[in-house]
Description:
By secondary structure, this protein is of the alpha+beta class. The chain contains twelve helices and twelve strands. It is 36% helix and 16% strand. A hairpin with a 3-residue loop joins strand 11 (255-256) and strand 12 (260-261). The relative contact order is 0.11.
Amino acid sequence: MHFGPAGTFGRVLECWDREAHEFVAIKLIRNVPKYRDAAMIEIDVLHVLAKNDRNRSRGCVQLKDWFNYRNHVCMVFERLGPSLYDFLRKNSYCPYSVDLVRDFGKQLLESVAYMHELSLIHTDIKPENILLVSSDYFKVPDYKKTSTPGKSFKRVPKSSEIKLIDFGSATFESHYHCSVVSTRHYRAPEVILGLGWSYPCDLWSVGCILVELCSGDTLFQTHENLEHLAMMERVLGPFPHHIIKRVDRRADKYFKHGRALNWPEGATSRESIRAVRKLPRLRNIIMQHVDHSAGPLIDLIHGLLKFDPSERLSAKEALKHPFFTEPYH
């Protein structure tokens, strides 16, 4: 689990369970009503996920127990390894191999398909919320980094098994949908454009994550809506007209006369224009980092990053993609 400094909700502590004689991770929630309420929703969601997963094969973190301590909700989880983001960061942002990306992608999509079957939308899938089950790794020479063999090493996880965590923002399809969901970099266009969202917003996040895992870099490194939309167009091509026509009133300002993105005219700075201009097309990003299976991977990611959520691959459809079914091309 992610141990250490407190986040907004509280912190995660590594603890020794004296009865079970094992290490566990305890998520300690701050004594603030909105965080307590969110924790109780998360506990309900975790119970639903566990009840339908008797043999624990669906790749969602297991809640072992929960209790109140001085008005803090404490959630006891199995102890896991580092997140895919933390592993990447400690590895100097050295990308994962395409075979590992395939393993991670398959497991992640299986977990998402399982959640969606139960009418649940995660809404916050990102590398920080995907944890390796084990912390163990090998050190292997990194030939890409140095011309002198033996001088540079990279870490490779010993096991590719992962689990999805943090169901604090998970929403049942039939329940109230707040207007903004997801962490910025993994946020789907329909959320930014106020078009309403559902299961496909999770698949957009998975598409962004696959690019990040095989390139080492966040695909859309931005903190601002118009720049984010411009980056999407740069990487994926222009927004379809039928999507632009339907944007929410509050998102009208991002488009010129309801026809095209207000870019670069609407940019806040020259740096912003440069940041967008230096982004390659999706195909080039993947080709730069992936030797074999690049074609099927590009096709899969294009299917996950469709602007129109109704055209986006579902988790079940993505699992049938040749990238997973015919791995060696």
